[in-house]
Write a structure and sequence with these properties.
89 residues, alpha+beta, three-stranded antiparallel β-sheet, 24% strand
Length: 89
């Protein structure tokens, strides 16, 4: 796990199958701190990554590429020809 102290608060990089995100891990709750176990605003993520690299973590550890979904071939949609109909009311 990667932890970073930023603006007096502690953040943790959490990775899962969909990618990764920064989570509040403790601190005096000042500034932009989201709260314990709450996701940090995504605008802060580049700043947190730069801080982690300065603290000695590898950039490859910070990459959180989501898994690519396998795309199924789509069926081509064809329009049914309109047949002339007679409507009697």
């Amino acid at each position: 796990m990667i932890t970073v102290d930023f603006e007096g608060n502690n953040y943790l990089l959490s990775k899962d199958s969909r990618g990764g995100y920064w989570v509040g891990n403790g601190g005096p709750k000042r500034g932009r701190y989201p709260g314990l176990s709450c996701t940090a605003p995504s605008i802060m993520w580049p700043e947190l990554a730069r801080k982690a690299i300065k603290e000695g973590y590898e950039a490859s550890e910070l990459r959180c590429a989501p898994l690519k979904k396998e795309s199924k071939p789509r069926k081509s949609s064809t329009k049914k020809p309109k047949k002339p109909t007679i409507s009697i009311f």
